[in-house]
Amino acid sequence: MAIFALSDLHLPLGINKPMDIFGVRWDNYVEKIEYEWKNTVKEEDFVIINGDFSWATYLSEALADFQFLQSLPGKKIISKGNHDYWWETLTKMNEFLRDNDISDVVFLQNNAVLCDGIAVCGARGWISPADKTFKKDDEKIYKRELLRLETSLQRASELSDIIIAALHYPPDEAYMEVIEKYNVYRCVFGHLHGKRAEDYSVLHKKCMLVSADFLKFAPIRII
Fold first, then answer.
1. Is the CB of residue 6 less than 8 Å from the CB of residue 220?
2. Of 23, 53, 94, 205, which has the highest C-beta tally within 10 A?
3. Using CA atoms, how far apart are residues 9 and 125, in angstroms rounded to an integer?
């Protein structure tokens, strides 16, 4: 068993909103994801998708994306990103999975998942106050997401001494303090693309940027 991560899939299968407008690296990216995934992940493995899974606006529009995911090997753990507009309550999302026979997906939302003795948890995160785009309205969301991260880490610590934290936004110093408090083994994050991804200086050796285009659409092994 291995645990992989790959964020920012931005699947367009339900609403036909491909990513190729963002540059040639996104040409045929769904096919690239399928090829790399099938050549990397085995059925007994887990894959963390830490945000921006689908371009769908509503959960029903994401069905084709979930069916595509079902066709790929491994068990998938999905957390929320800033573009996951389809995201609903856990109850509604789990009902959606049951109603559509999607059996190998679990959602992270104020909880933790045990993967053969390793706990996976996380939160969306938010823009750091140090970011020049940070506005007063962002402060409430930033603090709320920080609390959600700690809640999920508390639950993870009850399950295992080995914890993987999944964020969508890059963790800043305040988030890293919480991550260090729980002695997290690895923190994966996404959200950054193109030059921003190439230029980003990771705060800590425990952190890994796992945006799909940054990884050339191949899931990367975490443990």
1. yes
2. 53
3. 18
